[in-house]
Amino acid sequence: MTVAREEELYEPVKAFLEGQGYAVKAEVRGCDLVARRGTEPPVIVELKKAFNLALLLQGVDRLAMSEQVYLAFAAPVRAATWRRDRRSVLKLCRRLGLGLLMVHPEMALVEPLLDPLPYQPRLNRKRQALLLKEFAQRVGDPNTGGQTRRPIVTAYRQNALRCAALLHRQGPTKAALISSGTGVGTAGALLRNDVYGWFLRVERGIYDLSAKGRAALVLYADVLRELDGARPQTKSRRRAG
After folding, report:
1. Span 7-114 CATH architecture
2. What pLDDT, on the 0 to 100 scale, is given for residue 147?
3. What is the pLDDT of residue 17?
4. What share of the chain is helix, strand, coil (3-state, %, to 5)?
5. How far apart are CA 86 and CA 233, in angstroms?
6. What is the pTM of this model?
7. Domain range 139-227, CATH class
8. Backbone angles phi, psi at 224, to 5 degrees
């Protein structure tokens, strides 16, 4: 059901809070809805027909008046879109310390999605370590932020390009010689896994370049020029990308 006006959300939210023992009043000092229960801190609710940036900005502003701020919005008509975005929306609101209420006006139903709590971010040390490792191992800056025309050049892809370039020069070669010739300590696994489809196994332990690999040398010619003479940072195992 499409909501025509924000006012349609007010009565369901008011009834929801009154059912929990709150006294509710509308339009108090610029807030769409303010609720009180005894001597507890005030609860502020901002209403919008849809979850959007304007609702977020209002909610953040209201945090100056109360730590209990909820954003209320009408249940999206396109449920599939909401299912796709739900996790990210909840994560964002949690980070901002905002609560979230989804309103179904046709049923006079309020669905609480998130209560406001002070956000205490926890550092994911594994993800940070992978970030720092990739930054250290990648040669130069071969990508442009926001690029979409070709796959992102990772340290793993750079090593695959090193192997491809050697095979282009020398033809079918043993994996051990590719490893020593490129400085890529994990060349054997890289060739076996063949994540990008660039390599052909001619016989046991010997590899050649596929048509897809030859095309990659053209696509990434600028990256190869930057890699020329630059040895891999380490011989540690790298993730594909």
Report:
1. 3-Layer(aba) Sandwich (3.40)
2. 79
3. 95
4. 45, 20, 35
5. 40
6. 0.66
7. mainly alpha
8. -60, -40
Q: Which two tokens stand for residue 145?
A: 């932020």
Nearest by Cα to 213 from 198, 230, 227, 196? 198
Dist CA 139 CA 155 (whole Å) = 7
User: In sequence order, what are the residues at sequence separation of 6 or more whose Cβ sits closer than 8 angstroms to the Cβ of residue 213?
Assistant: 164, 167, 168, 196, 197, 198, 199
Q: From 40, 48, 45, 41, select the one nearest 28 (Cα to Cα).
A: 45
Most confident by average pLDDT, 86-90, 105-109, 129-133: 86-90
What is the rounded average pLDDT of the residues 181-190? Answer: 96
Helices 211-219, 155-170: inter-axial angle, 10-degree rounding: 120
Indicate the domain borders of the chain.
7-114, 139-227
Question: What residue type is assigned to position 119 of the chain?
Answer: Y
Please list the alpha-helical segments (H only) found in the chain: 7-18, 53-62, 79-96, 125-137, 155-170, 175-182, 187-193, 211-219, 221-227
Residue 239 has pLDDT above 90, yes or no: no
Q: 220 in helix, strand or coil?
A: coil
Beta bridge partners of 206: 174, 203
pLDDT for res 191:
98
Q: Average of pLDDT values for 1-6?
A: 73
Q: Mean pLDDT, to the nearest integer, of 158-179? A: 97
